[in-house]
Amino acid sequence: MGFGKNAMVFLFMVVVEVSMASGVVYKVGDSLGWTNIGNFDYKAWSSNKTFHVGDTIVFNYNKQFHNVLRVTHQQFRDCNNTAPIATFTSGTDSFSVRRPGHYYFICGVSDHCQTGQKVDIRVPKFPSPAPAPFAPVVPLPSPGMAPAVAPAPKKSGSSIVMVNKIWWSLLVLAFCV
């Protein structure tokens, strides 16, 4: 019985480790980074991403001219930098997403936030389900014609699906031990 408990604890630790390691690393502003030069649209950047718990948000910037402040929603809306939740000033800062919710970041230097250097990272409570595979309808062949073959559906690269499969496999294995 002692071996079974030890195996379950070990497997649980592996599942937690795999879950945390499966996140995606997002560089805010992509190759441009965190800047107010070039009028980069951070709202559009974040709206094109699907963030999940376990992801890492990276801010790359020139620390002589910028910083990163994690703020409340109201502070984000008002570009208020007086009492941030957290302040980052290294020039290569990472923020690990540990729970669902909205994470608001602004640049606290001069009028940078007012000119658009702010980003809202939205992490949904429940991951969006993978789309159902689509199999196109192929008409029945006429006599004497070879049947048409529908292309195989493309696989989703979702790390969440992979983690769920691993988790369930380890859970089943734990109960078998």
- Structural class from helices and strands? alpha+beta
Radius of gyration: 23 Å
Count every beta strand, where a strand is a DSSP E run of 2 or more residues: 7
- Unreliable stretches (pLDDT < 50, length at least 5) are 9-20, 145-165, 167-173
Globular, elongated, flat, extended or rod-shaped: what is the shape? Answer: globular
User: What strand line-up does the widest sheet have?
Assistant: 4-3-6-7
SSE sequence, one letter per element: HEHEEHEEEEH
Helical content stands at: 25-40%
Count every helix, treating DSSP H or I runs of 4 or more residues as helices.
4
For the biggest sheet, the summary is:
4 strands, antiparallel
User: Could you report the average pLDDT, rounded to the nearest whole number?
Assistant: 77
Span between N and C termini?
9 Å
- Report strand %: 15-25%
